[in-house]
Specification:
Blueprint: E1 9-12, H1 18-29, E2 33-36, H2 41-55, E3 59-61, H3 69-82, E4 87-90, H4 105-133, E5 136-141, H5 154-174, E6 179-186, H6 192-205, H7 209-218, H8 228-239, E7 250-253
Parallel strand pairs: 1-2, 1-4, 2-3, 4-5, 5-6, 6-7
Helix pairs in contact: 1-2, 1-8, 3-4, 4-5, 6-7
The protein binds NADP nicotinamide-adenine-dinucleotide phosphate (NAP).
Length: 260
C-alpha cells in the first residue's frame, strides 16, 4: 500500500514534544518530509534526529518563537527553500489557567499571542505559496475549549474559540484556491501541557490535581485522557488525499463528551 503522504512536506509548529511530536511521527510513518518548529532548539534537534533516524524521512528543525512575526516569516522562507510546503499544522500553544478576576493582562495576552496571533503569523506566511501552487492543507490545533466554556481558564477558551472561528473563515476564503482548512478539538491529552494545567487548576481551586483529574474523567464516556497518537491519526487523515472534501470543520476528539 502506498504511504498516504508520500511526496508531501509538512511544517508542524510545536513539533518537539506532546501532540506536535505525535503528529510528526504519524506523518513520518506516512512518508511525509517534515519541517519541525519549537523554541527550545536543543530539544527540537533531538526530536528531529530521532524521527529522521527511525522513519527515514527528511526532518528539518527550524527553531523560532511563533509569536514573533519577523522570526516566523524568516522560518517559513527557510522552510520553503527546503521544499514547497503542502501541509501546515498550527500546533504550538500554551495554557495559563486562572480565575477571570485574577488574570493579569500579561498572562491573558500571552495566551492570545501564543495560541491565536501565532496562527495568524504562521498561516499568513505559508498561504501565499499554497495559493500559488493551488493546493494545501492547514490543520489548526484548537480544543474542546474552543467549543464550550470552562471555569478558571477563560484566556485559553477564548483563544481556542478564536482558532475555531479563524478556521471557519479561512475555510471559506481559501476554498477557491484548493487550500482546505480544518481544526482538531481534543479534550485532555496526556502531555506536559495537561500535567501543567492540572497543577495550576489545583492551585487555583484548592482541590488536588489527582482529585480534579478523577472528577473530570467521570464526565467523559471513555473515562480517561487521550494519548497524543489518538489525535495524530485524525491529523494524518485531514492531511491526506482522502480528506479532499473536508473543509472548515472543527473535529472533536473527545471520546463522546460532546455529541452535537
Ligand atoms: N494537552 C491537551 O490536553 C490539549 C487539549 C486540546 C488541545 N491542545 C492543544 O494542542 C497543542 C499542543 O499541545 P500539547 O499538549 O502537545 O502541548 P505541550 O506538551 O506543552 O507542547 C507544546 C509544544 O509547543 C511548543 N511551543 C510552545 N510555545 C511556542 C512558541 N511560542 N513558539 C514555538 N513553539 C512553541 C513547545 O516547545 P518549546 O517550549 O520548546 O517552544 C512544544 O513543542 C496546543 O495548541 C494545545 O493548546 C492540547
Amino acid at each position: 500500500m502506498t504511504a498516504r503522504l508520500s511526496g508531501k512536506t509538512a511544517l508542524i509548529t510545536g513539533g518537539s514534544r506532546g501532540i506536535g511530536r505525535a503528529i510528526a511521527e504519524a506523518f513520518a510513518a506516512e512518508d511525509c518530509a517534515l519541517v519541525l518548529n519549537a523554541r527550545d532548539a536543543v530539544r527540537l534537534g533531538e526530536t528531529a534526529e530521532a524521527i529522521a533516524q527511525h522513519y527515514g524521512v527528511s526532518v528539518t528543525p527550524l527553531p523560532c518563537d511563533v509569536t514573533d512575526g519577523a522570526a516566523v516569516r524568516d522560518m517559513v522562507a527557510r522552510a520553503e527553500a527546503v521544499a514547497p510546503l503542502d501541509i501546515l499544522v498550527n500546533n504550538a500553544g500554551i495554557h495559563i489557567p486562572n480565575r477571570f478576576t485574577d488574570y493579569s493582562f500579561d498572562d491573558f495576552r500571552a495566551v492570545m499571542e501564543s495560541n491565536v496571533y501565532s496562527v495568524f503569523h504562521v498561516t499568513q506566511a505559508v498561504l501565499p505559496g499554497m495559493i500559488e501552487r493551488a493546493r494545501g492543507r492547514v490543520i489548526n490545533l484548537a480544543s474542546t475549549a474552543g467549543k464550550w466554556g470552562s471555569r478558571n481558564q477563560s484566556a485559553y477558551n477564548a483563544s481556542k474559540h478564536a482558532v475555531v472561528g479563524l478556521t471557519r473563515c479561512l475555510g471559506l476564503e481559501m476554498a477557491p484556491h484548493n487550500v482546505l482548512v480544518n481544526a482538531i478539538c481534543p479534550w485532555i491529552v496526556d502531555t506536559d501541557m495537561a500535567t501543567g494545567f492540572m497543577q495550576r487548576h489545583a492551585a487555583v481551586t484548592g482541590v488536588s490535581a489527582e482529585e480534579l483529574a478523577a472528577r473530570m474523567n467521570q464526565g467523559v464516556p471513555l473515562g480517561r485522557w487521550i494519548e497524543p497518537r489518538e489525535v495524530a491519526g485524525l491529523a494524518v487523515y485531514l492531511a491526506s488525499d482522502e480528506a479532499s472534501y473536508i473543509n472548515g470543520q472543527a473535529w472533536a476528539v473527545d471520546g463522546g463528551y460532546t455529541m452535537i
